TrEMBL record:
SMART domains membership: REC, Trans_reg_C
Domain Response regulatory, first and last residues per copy: 5-118
CDD domains the record matches: REC_OmpR_KdpE-like, trans_reg_C
Protein name: Stage 0 sporulation protein A homolog
Function field: May play the central regulatory role in sporulation. It may be an element of the effector pathway responsible for the activation of sporulation genes in response to nutritional stress. Spo0A may act in concert with spo0H (a sigma factor) to control the expression of some genes that are critical to the sporulation process.
Organism in which the protein naturally occurs: Lachnospira intestinalis
């Protein structure tokens, strides 16, 4: 039996049944809620490991559920919604969602996103237990204490902004970070010029991480939304 407890918040019965069946088949424990108030109650009562959340709930917006949970917990929240506009995705991610899946979705994609979140949880728990000062992802190594970064055993020469960006992404590996969140963390503001600068710095950082087309992709771009560091097996 998989140890993860997943809360499924979905008012559409066929979709809810599809998700529950997939979780059952892969031995995940689960809870269900059909509206926002029930979702908040279940989340606060059972402290699930992951929340799968629809945005269009009958009693409140899913974004309000995210905001409520974020006042007392950092539990991972994966949004599953028919809303496909970038503005909706950005609003949910800025409110505190960890990931966003657009309906219709495949069961394989959903399970993959859960696995990514599961790995991120394991990394966070490991860091909390060991208070590690070194981050390793594939051939990428960051020594936070020394302020040094290595790729394939060779030290990378990064600018201060590139290093801050890389550290921010690495500490949120597997999670989509919006342009607004990143610029707030790096520059303390989210002006249009900050977002333009972010794109430039991210492009130079990726060139240093991915010298050739055959190199591993560490940073994934979500066009119009933000960036995610991929977990390399």
């Amino acid at each position: 039996m998989n140890k993860l407890l997943i809360l499924v918040v979905e008012d559409d019965r066929p979709v809810r049944n599809l998700i529950v069946t997939a979780l059952k088949t892969h031995d995940y424990k689960y809870l269900t809620a059909e509206n926002g108030n029930s979702a908040i109650l279940e989340a606060s009562s059972h402290n699930p490991d992951i929340v799968l959340l629809d945005l269009g709930l009958p009693d409140m917006e899913g974004v309000d559920v995210i905001k409520n949970i974020r006042t007392w917990s950092n539990m991972p929240i994966i949004v599953i919604s028919a809303r496909s506009e970038d503005a909706d995705k950005i609003e949910a991610l800025d409110a505190g969602a960890d990931d966003y899946i657009t309906k219709p979705f495949s069961v394989e994609e959903l399970l993959a996103r859960i696995r990514v979140t599961q790995r991120r949880l394991a990394i966070i728990q490991s860091d909390e237990n060991q208070e590690s000062s070194v981050f390793i992802n594939g051939q990428l190594k960051i020594d936070y204490t020394a302020g040094c970064t290595y790729l394939n055993g060779v030290e990378l020469h990064l600018t201060p902004i590139e290093y801050k960006l890389l550290c921010l992404l690495s500490r949120n590996v597997g999670k989509v970070l919006t342009h607004t969140y990143i610029t707030q963390q790096i520059w303390g503001s989210s002006l249009e010029n900050d977002i333009a600068s972010l794109r430039v710095f991210m492009a130079t950082l990726r060139k240093k991480l991915e010298v050739s087309q055959n190199d591993i992709q560490y940073i994934q771009t979500h066009i119009g939304i933000g960036y995610r560091m991929l977990k390399i097996e």
